[in-house]
Write the structure tokens for this entry.
Amino acid sequence: MITYGEVTKEFIFEEDRPFRSCHSSTLAVLPDETIVAAWFGGSREGAGDVAIWASRRVSGVWTAPEKLADQEGMPHWNPVLFRRDDGILMLYYKIGERISSWTTMVITSLDGGLSWTYPKQLIDGDVGGRGPVKNKPIVLTDGTIAAPASLEPDWDAFVDLSTDGGETWTRSETVPLDHSTLLGKGIIQPALWESAPGNVHMLTRSTEGAVYRSDSEDGGKTWCPAFATDLPNNNSGIDLVKTDGGLLALVYNPVRPEAGSTKGLRTPLVLRLSDDNGQSWHNELMLDQGEKQYSYPSVVAMGNVLYVTYTWKRERIAFYRIQLLNKKGDPC
């Protein structure tokens, strides 16, 4: 039985911020427990002044937000941080006036997010957005990097795979989904985990009132038809992480849309755990609730600690540090 130990909640920045609106955060943890977080911010989502911003949490204190990427007049979207096994920190993000034609860019840091390379396209000529679309890549047992991806307006999910550290990518087959049976458009923004060598799984956002799932037995190259789980979904982003102990930690809005609708409220936001490969979920921890929205979480793990960021009312980025304990009260 797993319980929660020390739980710390903070805001990365307060009311005094250099943008009106912010959304879609991401984070990475360095070996010394320095946290690097990023998000997009500007006057409103999709506006030409929206840039990628970041902050670092050093010795428990967040630095002031710093602009990392800003192509003048071009909306920026959905940053994704990923720390490679060699310590290099990658930041992927999208640019484009329309989601259907956005392009994935990437910058890298050799010093834990203190300095960054000049942006380049992840894949030359990309239109529509290859690579991670919201949630972090994972490293499979054989060393392959698997990046959870999706396309709009098709609302289909897939995975981009790299065997050379992210230099080149191969697209998986599209996750099978019969769109003719759906109320809405489909599934996007997968979150990945590997349960055994080559056995890769995804949970996705959907327009159907439920989190959808698909499974792969060949390292993410092909996928079974996506199917609805018992988990509610409000057509908003989710994220999960597999801990070193094999637990799955899922952060999401446990909300279904009203009948006939494909969107639901983005509140409350909760954390739940699974110890049976996502078949059941328990140990719910309330992260936030109330008016407006608490949404688009990002979650990573180091040892027995979970780290979460999420959108708080589109005004701030909230951060949690959550300790996991076993039934004896020891770190699990």
Remarks:
- DSSP finds no helices and 25 strands in the chain.
- The first strand starts at residue 3 and ends at 11.
- The mean pLDDT is 96.
